[in-house]
Fold:
Amino acid sequence: MLAETICSAVSAAGLGIAAITAYRKRFLTATRIAAYSLVPVGLVMTGVVEWVSGIVFKPSVWIGFALLAVAWLLFMTTRAVERRSGSTRKERKAARQADRGAVAPGASSPSLTSGAGTAAAPQAREKPKKQQQAAAPGDDFSDIEAILKKHGI
Structure:
């Protein structure tokens, strides 16, 4: 009963402010204030205020909200752990296969190979250094060209 009276008083005050604002020739603002001031009366007439006051003063409702908060917290925690570790079996298997088949850009074979492939890797690393040294020392754009080539541009 008290909540309904307060909502009605707030709406009446809001409509009064809207009338004063309209008198000052600010019709758009007055219309907006009138719309906001009619909301509390509308909530009282639809029964929302009674429903909300019934929720606020029941301990079982607060326990329900607490349980929903705990459930949400558990969902978010498991989701964060899953993202961090890739906990599903398929994700772990795909990650292992991706690590095994890592190929450097421009390489003809995977960079992590065993046997004879490891001896070819140091030679491949020395070639770009020799190419960079072979560039003319007076060329001001050689560093920029090297950076652009490194990024594939």
